[in-house]
Amino acid sequence: MKRFFEPSRRTWLHRANPAVKLALFVLLFVVTMLTHRIDASFYLACVFLLLLFAASGYPIWKTALLASGFALAFASASLTMILFGKGSEIWWSFGPVAISKESFYRGLHLGFRSIAFGCQGLLFVLTTSSTGLFYALMQRLKLSPKYAYSFMASLRLMPMALEELRIRRDALAVRGSGSGSRAGALLRLPERYALPLLAQSIRRAQRTAAAMEVKRFDAGSRRTYYYSSPVTRSDAAALLLLAGATAAALLLAQALPVFNLGDMRMVP
Amino acid sequence: MENRKVEPLRERRAEARPHKPDGESAERENVQLQLGPLEERVSMPGAAEPDGAGRPTREESEEPAAEAAGLRLKFPGAPDLLFRDLSLKIRRGEKVLLLGPSGCGKSTLLQVLGGIIPRVTEVPLKAERLKVPESAGIVFQDPDTQFCMPYVDEELAFVLENLAVPREEMMPRIEAALLQVGLNLPDPHVPIGSLSQGMKQRLALASALLLEPDTLLLDEPSALLDPEGRRTIWEAVRRVCERRTVIIVEHRIEEVLDWVDRVVLFRDDGSIMADGSAAAIFGRYRAELRQYGIWYPEAWDDAYGRGISGKGLDGAAPEQRITARAVLPAQESGEVSEPLLRLENFRVLRGGKVVCAVESAAVMPGDLIALTGPNGAGKSSLLLGLMGLLPREGECRYGADAPVGRREVRETAAKRAAFVFQNPEFQFVTNRVLDEVAFTLRGEAEAARNAGRRSVLARLGLPRRRTKPGSGAEAGIALRADECLNRFGLGDYADRHPYLLSLGQKRRLSVASAVVSDKPLLLLDEPTFGQDARNAFAMLDLCEELRASGHAVLMITHENEIAERLATQVWRVEGGRLVSAESTGRPRASRVRLAEGGEA
Amino acid sequence: MSTQVSGAASRRRGLTLTDVLVTVVVSLVLGVVYHLWASVSSVAGLLFVQSDELVYGMWFAASTLAFLLIRKPGVALVAEIAAAHLEIAFGSAYGIQLLLYSVVQGLAAELVFAAFRYRKANAFVAGLAGIAAAAASLLADIYYGYVTEYATWLLVYKYSLRAIGSFVIAGYLMYGLAKLLEKAGVTQSLRPVDRKEYDALDG
């Protein structure tokens, strides 16, 4: 898991301060959220998809693998709207399904937007190390170390939980199936897996917390930091890069509209 | 603890100990009983030590490193106090070993003395005096739950951050600490996950050292390590412990014995039985050490005699073990029986790669096979492969059956072999001890009713179809399950939740629920790992008993003594290959010695 | 030793490191189990129109379970954020919005527990918290997914399913799980110690 999430080269975005970068990406999220025109969302999706491949610092196959999840995100964001959305110009209808021109383009717009969100999110994740992010949040945004270290520790505990999931599956296979109906089994599955995994993980968390406290982890007192988290010129570069990408998308939407439709909401 | 105020409390007489003052108490050395009315107070580091007159412990002018006097402690929900007016004083620079049976409260006491209870973990306690060290470093048992950061340097830096050490001083200190414990990493920015368990424990020691502790508390730091890891962690401890107070809880005492100044021996009920030099304790309390399951150096000799290969069994202390005869007729007349398992050109795969290859090997009834080899050599994969839980190639016969195809392999394996995982909790599927065993029997009954059919759910260990056994069958199942529990010394716990058993009991329960259906082959993944001697021997006795009744046991183990004393064959796996499978010369059938039943 | 009692209690009023870490791993485990379950249930073919809404409540399950286990203010919110954090860290295609969703949903659940002054920890209250979180997700969906532009019947249908699912999963299912953990002796050390346990020391 850890090996997989290691960039092969470092870009400007990697060098930017994670806290600043988080703020930038949240801002970017808000801008994307306030985009209600399909041309804008289309170009945002395109531009950030390009940027994702160019600036994530990961080999193309890895980026593509991670980005394949966007297909599902696109479908889940757009399909329901396309099939069941409100609209006056009906193209096709069958039973409860009514595809209208408005709902169709609104659905596409939502799909593009979800790709833009996805690209932005992935770009942030791939260019930011968790450790770096939490050190920055502690130093720049005064996040309580109690939360920062708990969240960092959880990443270490993740592979253990996955390993235990595998062991539990093998163990259940060895123990055999017991009796019960198939649907009942499906409903019992969460319990069957959750109970032993939770029991293990909770005990592990308690022990880890005790070990941390023994090492004088006291959230109240002054502490120093192993990694500094300076704001540098890379942050300005990241700002320019992201602002430039967004501006380019929005300008392209003005200059070269593909769909040329207005606000996607019926009641803006 | 900011708003702690010392308030005078009602006076209380320290009661007499719950057990009767019999001949034993005369042998008690150095145990300070505090009698008479006392003002209750706690002393913690930094708190001003109120001066009191007429306190019996004042006779020593020197301030102790840690002390508990009149300690009472009770776990929430527990029926009884764990400690009732316990007193113990640790002098500065002393190296003290706390010994006692599992569950007697040694580890809890260590946590009290280390300041974890009640500061971090809330457990109701009170004491007349409680002094914890000014600075304590603690190493715990489990190598996987002591770190919060992904990399070695980050983990050590975490300690320094807590102490507000300036950034530029961190690296030199980190490197020095690693050097002290003998972890020579060219670059400390190494994932902790890539270290061996033994190295992780030394890392835990290094991070304790960064606190510059005056007292080092070690809570079974080597219990979950293989022999090599055990050796290196104790070497490291010895290197760093000079001029420090050291308090150790440990079941395995070989590596500790020759350098501790003092041994404190606890009873089952959490009271102190004896307190003295190692030599004195070992001279006088050998029987207790044995009864308590301490791994003292001659524990194996005392349990299985001095000889090798079963010959010495007669030398085993007869008063402790019942000898019974249960020899298989087939084996009395020599070795003509069919192998329970035969492997030819057998390979286990993981992710398309061969992780364990076996050219030729066989398991006969009455075999006890020690499967040895370094960590990661492929031992566990071999067992998983035998159960059909990993893809495999080549020939593998279970008795006369040579199943082909994933599903058939799995079903045959499940019918012929029982597998006990290292952590028994993962194998429990019910919420009651009795039901665990009954579950196996019900599954067996059901399998007999409807053989076959496969589904996605079955692969995940889920039922495929409802069947209702008759009430007569149910009663029979309950009876058999009960009988089985009694045989495994779990009869008193039938209604308990399996998770509430001790580790030894959990292991026995998972063996019980595996063998209740009479599967001839038992696969065990390190069954004695992390156990005290009493439970380990109880487990091995159980294996002996099964073996004598025609079962075969194949166990992964790092314990050389098992291979040398009990095994009929030793299989050695190295680098993903079974490199040798040798008979030890110990006969397959032997007289059975019934288990004395682990911790009661 | 009432000195120690008061010292311990004052320290434990807020969230301790142990509380936070346990909350985080509860989210983690439920997340892992959820992904396993989602893959199996889709294989098992239990899908009809919008049926995934029925299991949407799994997203709130961590916050109610964490509260049922620890019973302190704040854990529901922390659990939600932790779940989102892990999803994002391991490369989810949904990105930053998971974080913002988790905040509104966690706050909504938190509000319900607060309305009962953090004293009631039963299945019904947990279920209500689930419904509140579902309502918060609707609010977010209005901005994020224009759901008010759905045909009205669908809007009602979709969010009714979500609310029902949340009530059952975050409420009764998690309550059952918490009870099981209680039986297994796991929860004991998570909760503040009862006063009478201290009194028993004098026995």
Automatic annotation (TrEMBL), chain A:
Protein name: Energy-coupling factor transporter transmembrane protein EcfT
Source superkingdom: Bacteria
Pfam family, one: CbiQ
Species the sequence originates in: Saccharibacillus alkalitolerans
Keywords tagged on the record: Membrane, Transmembrane, Transmembrane helix
Subcellular location: Membrane
Membrane-spanning ranges: 12-34, 40-58, 65-84, 115-137, 236-259
Origin organism lineage: Bacteria, Bacillati, Bacillota, Bacilli, Bacillales
Record-linked InterPro entries: ABC/ECF_trnsptr_transmembrane
Mode of membrane association: Multi-pass membrane protein
From TrEMBL, chain C:
Membrane-spanning intervals of the chain: 20-48, 98-116, 123-147, 159-181
Keyword Repeat attributed: no
Keyword tags: Membrane, Transmembrane, Transmembrane helix
Domain of life from the UniProt record: Bacteria
Name of protein: ECF transporter S component
Organism: Saccharibacillus alkalitolerans
